[in-house]
Structures are given as C-alpha cells and as structure tokens.
Design brief:
By secondary structure, the chain is an alpha/beta fold. The chain is 44% helix and 15% strand. A 3-stranded parallel β-sheet has the order 3-4-5. It starts with a helix and ends with a helix.
Length: 186
C-alpha cells in the first residue's frame, strides 16, 4: 500500500495521519536484505511532501532500521528525553547515530531541539537531567517541558489528542508551548 492510500484524516482540520499497521512489526526484518533499505521511508513520503507544511515522524525508542529510515527522511530532528538518568545514556548513542546519518545518508539533517518529557519539577534528578541536556545541547533545549500527567496518559485511550481530551490541563499547555517554540525556530 502506498503512503498516499494509507493516509487518513483525523477530524482535526489540516491534520492527517499515516498509521502503522501490524505489517510494520515485520518491516525491520524485511528491510535487512533490501536494497537502499535506509531510504525506503524517504522515497515513500516524497509524494506527500508538497501536500503538507510539516510531516512529523514518530519513532520507536530504539536505533533500528525503522528509526534509521526516519533519520534519513527527515530535515530536522526533535529529540524527546525523559527526565530520568538512564535516558541520558541513550542520548549519547543517538548523537553518534545522527553523525553517522549525516555522513552517509542525510547531510542536511539538523537537530531542531531537545524536549524534556515526563518532567517532575519536584525531583532533584529531573533538574540534574535538564542541566545535563542543556550542557550537551546548548541553545537547543526547549524551555517547554512536558510534565508527567495522568491526563496525558489517558488521552490516547480515548482516541484523542490532549488538546481534544483536556485542553486546560498542564500537559496541553506544555504541548502548546512546545508547538509555539517549534514554529518560532522554523
């Protein structure tokens, strides 16, 4: 199925999604022996690029072929980092992969910014993670921090974005702030 035929409306004006299916579970294995395996997503999205102002690609928290395809297809990268110590270790690996992608697949890839997620400002560990991220990515860390929130966790189970589910919640406010920062950097 092509990306064009898989595209679905969301009920939000100007927003469409290209949902994953169970077939994606086997894609990693199928891509291993495929020619130009790192560029399959880029090629699949080419017909959609002119139809949208932004195409956001949500990636799994792993550095496999699916994520590599996303990095090869992207212009800019928004890196979410959980406000937890072990998330910093993965960040180091990701920066090495980004450099490899720039060198071999996508020299135009740039980091738009880093967003802190699952943030709890009451903990010292969260503050330490923020300080480390800001030290490693000076000027790239968004000031909006996405909080730990029951409402954020509940929204997907109702098939809704946080703005549809609870527009007055702290999570909705944080995502709105992040969107404004992203647009300001464009």
């Amino acid at each position: 199925m092509s990306a064009e035929t898989a595209l679905r409306p969301t009920g939000v004006q100007g927003l469409s999604i290209l949902p994953a299916t169970l077939n994606l579970a086997g894609a990693e294995i199928e891509l291993v022996s495929a020619l130009s395996r790192e560029l399959r997503l880029k090629v699949a999205l080419q017909k959609l690029v002119s139809r949208f102002d932004f195409i956001c690609i949500d990636c799994p928290p792993s550095l496999g072929l699916l994520t590599l395809n996303a990095l090869a297809a992207a212009d800019r990268l928004l890196i979410p980092v959980q406000a937890e110590y072990f998330a910093l270790e993965g960040l180091g690996q990701l920066t090495r992969v980004i450099e490899l992608v720039r060198a071999h697949l996508n020299p135009e890839l740039e980091i738009l910014g880093v967003v802190i997620t699952m943030y709890d400002g009451r903990t010292n560990s969260a503050a330490q993670v923020v300080a480390e991220v800001e030290r490693h990515f000076p000027g790239l860390t968004f000031s909006s921090k996405i909080p730990r929130s029951v409402r954020l966790a509940e929204a997907p189970s109702f098939g809704a974005s946080i703005l549809q589910f609870d527009a007055k919640s702290k999570g909705a406010s944080a995502y709105t702030g992040l969107a404004e920062e992203v647009l300001a950097r464009e």
